[in-house]
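Example record used in the benchmark description.
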Amino acid sequence: MSSKTDSSIAIVGSGILGLTAARLLQRTFPNRSLTLIAAEFPSQDPSTLSVDYTSAWAGAHYRPIPAGDNPQLLLEAELGKKTYEIRKKEFAEHGEKIGIRFMEGVEYLAKPSQAVLALQSGDGSYAGEGDGFRVFENQELPEGVMWGCRYWTYDVNPDIYCPRLLKDFVDAGGKLVTTKLDNLEEAFKAVEGAATVVNCSGKGFGDDKVLVTRGQTVLVRNECKRTITRQNGDGTWTALIPRPGAGTIIGVSKEVGDMEAGARIETRLALLEKAKRLLPGQVLKNEGDEWDVIRDIVGRRPTREGGLRLEVEKLGQEKRIVHAYGAGGRGYELSWGIAEEVIRMVKSE
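Model output (structure tokens):
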């Protein structure tokens, strides 16, 4: 068998983590053969993708979560900031044509954590360097909100961004294998000479810490100028996420263990009503307009208890699996940071 320095690498999973890891692996190891294995690949036509191709159904905006002294959240905060810096470079080079847009982000929380309450304007970066983070004064908060802030953030259009990553991977010599694996051992058989398999699968192949959370959102043609996220007093969340080139995402439901693939009309109506009450006159193009619905969106989001799995698993003397999955709803927010961790682990031997 070839040595690990020149052997093939198989990447399992064509979601945002798999695609990003594949591209960074190509740039880091230009002489190695890379193959992306997945049951389905991103497409600019959402109707061709299943409810289980989660990355197609994401919001997908960057909303940092204060870590406090939680080790897992501290790691995710660092990965999010690394991704933020790379997103700025992507936007500077390509603009919105690759499906990225930078804008103001606003948050309103009804029940903020102690880590959130400890934040002060000017304490340093929240989303990333130069984000203009500012905590709102009490008089700026809507009724029922205890804490709020603004910062400079981004959102992503998956219908544009993911197909672009896939095209760049193939154009750079990457190979594709379309198959549904029953286990990760099959990945070694699917790619000749592979000594390393990078596991960016959503569900982790039998990981009992992974569960599915159903999420439903609505894509409307109405345009919002900023991302707005509100934590409601009943524990639900309302989000308005401008989608580059395609209106606004209104969300979001979170239903653990719910496998319903179809959209529920009652969920759509509830999401739209909460969004309209959020900030009347700032949400719609013109005050008094009604929602112009393009489509309902439903995705099954694999969520891992305890957060990310980033580790190397050895299989004998010659083979190893690099695990990089479990981002839950933060795949786009952490993707480039996780890809850098993949490179570190691949280089570790």
